[in-house]
Sequence to fold (70 residues):
Amino acid sequence: MVYRSTRGVALSWRKSSASGDENTCVEVAALGPSVLVRDSRDHSAGVITIGHAQWNALVDAVRNGDLDWR
Fold:
């Protein structure tokens, strides 16, 4: 995980269009070589920062159903 200050940086947060008007998902923003991830319901809960390779691996795992817990 990379820790860096984002004070004064305008971030473009995005969430899945599949979530509609719900706030029950995560939001992501790009910051240089990193991807920032936060809870869409609780922005004060903090941010996880991961690299693009780790983000791509996470997205692939979700798409492949590797993280299904049901």
User: Anything to note?
Assistant: The beta strands are 26-31, 34-39, 48-51. Residues 37 and 48 are 5 Å apart (CA to CA).
